Structure formats: structure tokens, C-alpha cells
Amino acid sequence: MDKTYSGPKALTEYILYQSKHKADKSYLILLVQGILGGIYIALGAMGYLKLVASTLDPGLGMFLGALVFPFGIIAIMLMQAELFTSDSLVMVAVYDGRTKFHKIFVILVLILITNMIGGILMALLSQASGVFNEQAMTLIIDKAIHKINMPYGQLFFSGILCNILVSTGVCLAYSCRDEIAKVVVLWLAITVFVLSGTEHVVANMYYLFLAYFGGADISLISIGINLLIVAAGNFVGGGIIVSGVNYLLAYKDIEKR
Q: What is the CATH number of the domain that holds 244?
């Protein structure tokens, strides 16, 4: 690695390094870090929901909630947990011929499943502890029913847009040397994502299961369909578009090295 810390070339080299690091991890470590990733995202989502439900002005509530939600992904970055959406960037290693697609696919599926375990655990704890009052649960159930009833095409493309935003934020954080700078750029990017209202599969895991345990008229099958479609869109946004474009821009320099 040279002294350049930003730009597609430095970013792609860093992601290639991270890809090898992830590939060398044991499945047990990935399992624990994936569960933590789901828990951290749920914590940020919990703060978001509390603010939205308790603020009289819906616009102000959403803005304040958007400022709180990034806590989850910042915790993931600093505590080295694993998150499906940002981990989609490891597709760079496939483009560069460093690993096979099936190996990356297995890692991403494992992280997706373990993120869901963390989200379900937090949904159960939120419900059992009474974190949300009746007014908040009404909002959560309405939000979940809206997500379940969204057209599949809209879900998919919303998932793509979501992970273009999230993965770009992660790329910006990767390009920063200082921890404070990483936090600031990631905070800004995730705030924009939340304000956009696009679909993030791991956040949806918490929202939908929280509503399900709260008595929402939604089925486990409909939850599963929603999560699969959004996950596919998130993968395209991060694993194909963001990582693909950065690799294309860096390709010649990477090949020379």
C-alpha cells in the first residue's frame, strides 16, 4: 500500500485486503460478528423509531431519527462486526480474480442469516421489555404493513438505491485515516440514506419481526419474501454497482501493481 488513502485505487486495494481478511475468518467468528451486526443496526433503528413516534411534527421526528440511526453502522465499523450490505463490497475480490464467486456468496449468505438472528433477538427483547408504547407500536405495525405491501419491483430498486448510499458512505469511511473522520462521513451518509426512505434488508429484519411479535397481520412468508427481494437489491447496489465502478476505475493501476 502506498501513502494515498483516497480515490478508487486506494479504496479498491483496501477492499481487496479486507476481502482476504474476511475469507480467512472462521465461520464461528463470522457468525458472532454477524449477530452483533444485526444487534447494532437494531439499536440504531430503535432510537429512530422512538424519536419518530414521540415527536409531534412527523418531519422533525424523521430528521431527528435519521441523526440517531447511524449509531448502529458506526458501532459495526468501530467494533468490527459484520453487515451484509457493506460486506457486499467484497465482490471486488471476485472481479480481480482473487477468489471465486461461490466462496463470497457463502460468506454473504452466512452474514445475512446471522444479521437476521441479531435482528430477531432485538425484536424479541424490545417486545418483552416494553420499550415501545402503544402509540409507537401502532406506527411500527403501519410501517411494517406498508413495507410488506410494496410492489416487488419498487422494493428491489429501493434496495439498490439504499446500498448505493450505504456502500458509498462505507467507502468514504474506508478512505479516512482518522477515526473521527470515519465517524463523521459515515454519519452523514447514513443520515441521507434514512431520509431517503429506501429499503435496507437488515433494518427491515428488525422492523418486520418487531411488528410481527407485536401482533401485526403479516406472515412469516411475506416477511421472508420482502427480505429476499431487498437483499437482492442491496447486493446489486453495493456488490455490483459501487464495487464494480470503483474496480473499473482502479483496474489499470491495480493490474500494474
A: 1.20.1080.10
Instruction: Specify which of 8-17, 148-157, 182-191 reaches the highest per-range mean pLDDT.
Output: 148-157
CA 93 to chain centre: 20
Q: How many domains does the chain have?
A: 1
Per residue in 110-129, pLDDT tens? 999 999 999 999 999 999 99
Q: Residues 151-185: pLDDT tens digits?
A: 999 999 999 999 999 999 988 888 888 889 889 99
Q: How buried is 89 (Cβ within 10 angstroms: 0-12 exposed, 13-18 middle, 19+ buried)?
A: buried
Look at residues 118, 148, 101, 100 and name the one whose alpha carbon lies nearest to residue 34: 118
In a domain, 1, yes or no: no
Candidates 76, 85, 79, 90; CA nearest to 15 is 90
> 166 and 73 in contact (C-beta within 8 Å)?
yes
DSSP state of 238: I
> Residue 28 CB: number of other CB atoms within 10 A?
8
Cell of 218: 403479516
